[in-house]
Amino acid sequence: MRQLAALSRRFSAWSFRTSAAFHKFDIASVIERAKHQHAFEYFADDQHSSLMLYRTMQPEYKPAEYLSVVKCASNRRLISRFRTGCHGLRVDTGRWADGVHLDRTYRLCLVCKSLDCVEDEQHFVFDCPAYNHIRSQHLDLLQHCCTIADFMALCEPNTCGGFLRECFACRKQILSV
Ligand SMILES: [Zn+2]
Predict the structure, then answer these.
(1) Is residue 110 over pLDDT 90?
(2) Is 130 a domain residue?
(3) How much is the average pLDDT of 13-33?
(4) How many Å lie between the centroid of ligand 1 and the Cα of residue 21?
(5) At 48, is the pLDDT very low, low, confident or very high (cuts 50, 70, 90)?
(6) If you measure from the C-alpha of residue 127 to the centroid of ligand 1, how many angstroms do you get, rounded to a whole number?
(7) Each residue of 95-105: pLDDT tens digit?
(8) What distance in angstroms lies between residue 174's CA and the mean position of ligand 1's atoms?
(9) What is the pLDDT of residue 167?
(10) Domain boundaries, position 146
(11) 2 alpha carbon – ligand 1 mean position (Å)
(12) Can you give the three-state secondary structure of the chain, one letter per residue?
């Protein structure tokens, strides 16, 4: 019983000291400083090509609109991966596939078996002939866009997610044959 009381007193003292220590710091300002530091690094990093693309779509450091608009979690995840360049296209996987780093110019599209087209986001959304039948059903979606930044900014996010889903499903089917 005496040991329990001693343990309780020690815990109370520790709790008091910890609480006092936290009061010394202004947690809100620590969080705010960490946010500013992260935003600074986000805009200053010019080494990662996928981040460069992301910044063209998201010039401000704030939550993107699609996060609150797209209710389907898997479509939201798909859009997030596409925007951040973690989509599995050759421009992404060529960085590390099979432990080999391919120069960007060698990350060619295996879907249309192009000899000179890198399978990047632009090729995937606008140019690869393998998805022409899907594009033909989404002319309204694509007619005002000619860059990925336009595509992500101008297209209604739910429709955009659906289009990407169809194209990725088609890609998977073609590559599995
Ligand atoms: Zn292609």
Answers:
(1) yes
(2) yes
(3) 73
(4) 58
(5) low
(6) 7
(7) 887 788 889 89
(8) 11
(9) 97
(10) 31-176
(11) 76
(12) CHHHHHHHHHHHHHHHHHHHHHHHCCHHHHHHHHHHHHHHHHHHCCCCHHHHHHHHHCCCCCCCCHHHHCCCHHHHHHHHHHHCCCCCCHHHHCCCHHHCCCCHHHCECCCCCCCCCECCHHHHHHHCHHHHHHHCCCHHHHCCCCCHHHHHHHCCHHHHHHHHHHHHHHHHHHHHC
1 domain residue, yes or no: no
Q: Is the pTM of this model over 0.85?
A: no
Split into its structural domains, the chain has a count of 1
User: 62 CA to middle of ligand 1, Å?
Assistant: 33
**For residue 33, how far is its CA from the centre of ligand 1 (angstroms)?**
44
Tokens of 36: 């500013």
